[in-house]
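Re-run with default settings, no changes from the original entry. Doing this only to confirm the output is reproducible before filing.
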Amino acid sequence: MRNFLIIFLICVGFAACNKPKNIPDEELEAIIHDLFIANAYGSIDGHNLGMDTMDIYAPIFKQYGCTPKDLMYTIDNLSKRKSIRFTDVLDNVIASIEKESRGYDSIVQVRDSIDQSIVERYKKVVYRNDTTQKVTRFADLADMKITIPIQQGSYKVDYVYFLDSTDQNIYMQYHQSALDSAGKEYNHLYRGYNTRGKNTKGSVKTTITRDDLKELKIEFGRVAHKEPKNTFFTIDSVEVTFYPTKEAAKDSLLRDILKKDKLIPLNITSDAGKGKKDFVTLPADTTRSFAEGDSIVRR
């Protein structure tokens, strides 16, 4: 209502000398709707765009072939009618804007889905080991570790574990962390093995936002209590998948398109000369092929 009061005062100031005309109800709602939208765009996030107010509103009146005086004349006449009130007009306009905003939300969802599909296109399995790893002594848990080189993006670790019901350790954990070049650990993440006596799937996803983190360290068997006992623990079907950032994935898609059409040389990047970080083009996982074997050195 406050915004409309501003519009009201402006309209009074622009009253013309010609006899005003009455605007039909549907057109009146359309005009007020557009005035509200223009007012919102003219002050995005609370920051005025510096435009003169009538620079925003004048095209609307021109579009509908009326004047501010026509608008005020029509609103004044509404008070003389019993079939419709000005509050009814405002209610209809607000309902229309709310309906449109829900449509904008769906557009955002579609855009996010498209972004995710591009990221999926360039995902890559960076580690896979189908060999069953079984330990029956606590000391052997130290061998159930892997270290993987990383870059900015997300990593999803999938595995199958079996914790025997006879295992006497109170709390067995999955633990992972990200290491910088000096070996200092960050981004600690823990998962408890809460199911005993049957094969259970586990999945952990983490996002790396710092470019100084170089390795992902994964410990599949960690005992938290002070007096660890012998264990009966198995890890199987370990797979680590890398998902690039949205920016890197879009960059790679653009280059793939340009290369396919031979519009640019292979060694020329789309951001060349702009001072932006250069992304390495990622191979698309169109065949859904996986990395073969255990290629990661254990520690």
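The two ends are 67 Å apart (CA to CA). The chain is about 35% helix and 25% strand.
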